[in-house]
Specification:
Structural class: mainly beta
Helix content: under 10%
Number of strands: 19
Largest sheet: 9 strands, parallel
Strand order of the largest sheet: 1-2-5-7-9-12-15-17-19
Number of helices: 2
Shape: globular
Radius of gyration: 17 Å
Amino acid sequence: TVLAAALAVTCAFHEASGAEVRYVDCARGRDGQDGLTRRTAKKTLNAALDTLEAGVDGLLVVDKGRCPAEGGIRLWLHTTVQGAGQGKTFLDDEVVVAAREDCLSFLDSYRGALADLTVARVRVAPSSCEDGEVRLTRARATGPVSSFTSAYGGLALEQADVVDASAGQGGNVIVHGSRVRGTLTVSGFEDASALIEDSTVTHLALTEKVIANVRRTTF
């Protein structure tokens, strides 16, 4: 089942990275609980994020159901949000991948990943850190996905379904086995690159400096 597959990914991620895991149940959880088990799940993602220690990988396991807007969900550190399935877990809010004040604690880079869920929209916020990346895996975004930082904004879509996607400056873009219903925009410095393969893209917009490698993709 989709949930079983999601749990398998969760366990593999946890074992491989030693990530701090927090559980979120937007229907039955309570923010006053510790979020360390499914029985003591947090109710909101932001409450769960606040319990993660700076400088370590974080994994938020979100149960099936709909998570209402919290006024913006921020992914700190190297954080992955793992849902129960693209049509089972819904985040009705914008997810902002942002650096904390302590950029140096994670080597001047930060990334946020969302897997097996549906989200309203996603963006990487500009910061003093050198680069940032947003990654969607087996996920759907009903609004735009964007990555524009002060230096290198990365974007990765793996078996994802999005409306519009864009990345700027010198970041790399990887699109594999995905669908972009609107426009995929890649702009940036001379070292910016885009790898697009086994995907469907309605419209592709590149600046002259972007090095693009397109394979087995329909437009």
